[in-house]
Write a structure and sequence with these properties.
Structural class: alpha+beta
Number of strands: 6
Order of helices and strands: HHEHEEEHEE
Number of helices: 4
């Protein structure tokens, strides 16, 4: 008769070979890594989608900005005469701005953030909004009007280089990637699965008809 607590050698081998529950253990080890890869693909895929669509929409936005009234105040409508030097003969209207120094007045670089109170900024925002992350606002747009003496003539429409910028925008992850990394036993990088800066992008084009905003 076998005493309590005693086992035959074959009993220990049977216990060692018993693989019941192994599948659950393997699943517990693998599932955090699987979820990390799955949700990571979703979130980084979302960010890549917004980047590609925003980049293409920015080209459309810049094209519209070049044929619409300026989105910033203080952008002149015509090329005024620059300051005359002593005994200088005033250049005639119609003279190219590149004909000489101060032929046309240089208003410098004029920049402003997008505003809902401006029709041009509102129109461009309508083109971009669907391509951007959900927390984007019209103030994430920035318009820049830069003087270029090779564009325009004295007395004619002011023709700057127009730049539309997308800036100061964040991308919010929806998946708890940092927590999933912790479940795998690794240390999650700071900020993983939280909010990251969305890439800044800009497109510049020479203006065509800022004076009247006509497309035809």
């Amino acid at each position: 008769m076998k005493r309590l607590g005693q086992h035959k050698p074959t009993d220990w081998f049977a216990i060692w070979r018993d693989d019941r529950g192994v599948t659950m253990v393997e699943l517990a080890i693998v599932i955090p890594l699987f979820l990390l890869l799955f949700f990571g693909m979703i979130d980084f895929g979302r960010m890549a989608f917004h980047y590609v669509t925003a980049e293409k929409a920015m080209h459309v936005a810049a094209r519209v900005a070049t044929v619409r009234p300026a989105a910033c105040p203080s952008v002149p409508q015509v090329n005024a005469r620059g300051p005359l030097q002593q005994n200088q003969v005033p250049p005639q209207f119609g003279t190219n701005c590149s004909a000489g120094a101060n032929t046309c007045a240089n208003p410098g670089v004029i920049a402003c953030a997008g505003s809902a109170g401006n029709a041009t900024a509102n129109e461009i925002w309508g083109l971009l909004q669907g391509a951007l992350p959900n927390d984007a606002t019209i103030s994430n747009l920035r318009f820049v009007y830069s003087y270029d003496e090779n564009l325009g003539f004295l007395g004619g429409p002011y023709v700057p280089v127009v730049t539309v910028e997308l800036q100061n925008l964040n991308f919010q992850f929806v998946s708890p990637l940092g927590a999933l990394v912790g479940l795998t036993g690794a240390t999650a990088p700071a900020g993983l699965g939280a909010t990251v800066s969305f890439p800044t992008m800009s497109v510049s084009m020479p203006a065509e008809d800022l004076s009247h905003g006509n497309t035809g």
